[in-house]
Amino acid sequence: MWDERYSIDSYVYGESPNDFLRERVSALKRGRALCLAEGEGRNSVFLAKHGFTVTGVDSSSVALEKAERLAKKNHVTIETVHADLARYTIEQDSWDSIVSIFCHLPPSLRKTIHRRVVLGLQSGGTFLLEAYTPRQLEFGTGGPPKAEFMMDLGSLKEELAGLEFVHAQELIRDVSEGIKHTGQASVVQVLSRKP
């Protein structure tokens, strides 16, 4: 499904970074950054341009090929890893920052990944997430078709136990990220830090 979605010449979610990431990049701990479900590379490339050493993981080889091209176009280097997040190992105490932008997974896998995120961050490391909330189904401007794949603040605070929340809110905002995320949307945003 994802290879097929990304098999067009243009960038499905655009070439510009996610707005929340762009707004909060200065709050992220510098160093090694891991981007989950990175897709075509827009966020990895942005972080690399800001001096991070970036690894982007995605299950679509087509998307990662486009990510490599985008990095070359922007004169930066990123590492891409073709892997299913269910089988990808997030090494403990290894990452300065981890980024999850619209990474919608089945609930049980999402909980597992979020536990791995907490363990994978170094002390002082930061985690940034933006995702659709179940209310997004009312808007129909992007995201999965089922509420259980979406996130809310209460669940995220449970799943990310062990992190200190610097910023955490649900809001309605205009999203303009390529052809698949366009229009008013219901999102949850989190910026957290590992003590």
Layout: helices, strands, pairs:
Layout: H1 2-6, H2 19-24, E1 32-36, H3 42-49, E2 53-58, H4 61-73, E3 79-82, E4 95-101, H5 107-120, E5 121-132, H6 153-159, E6 164-177, E7 181-193
Fold and architecture overview:
This protein is an alpha/beta fold. The protein has a single domain, classed as Rossmann fold (3-Layer(aba) Sandwich), CATH 3.40.50. The chain is built from 6 helices and 7 strands, in the order ααβαβαββαβαββ. Strands 3-2-1-4-5-7-6 form a 7-stranded mixed sheet.
Based on the model shown, name its key terms:
single chain; 195 residues; alpha/beta; Rossmann fold; 27% helix; 31% strand
Helical content band: 25-40%
Order of strands in the sheet with most strands: 3-2-1-4-5-7-6
Q: What is the CATH class?
A: Alpha Beta
Number of E-state strands? 7
As a whole number of angstroms, the C-alpha radius of gyration is 15 Å
Low-confidence parts: none
Oligomer: single chain
Q: How far apart lie the N and C ends?
A: 38 Å
Question: What's the name of the CATH homologous superfamily?
Answer: Vaccinia Virus protein VP39
Number of domains: 1
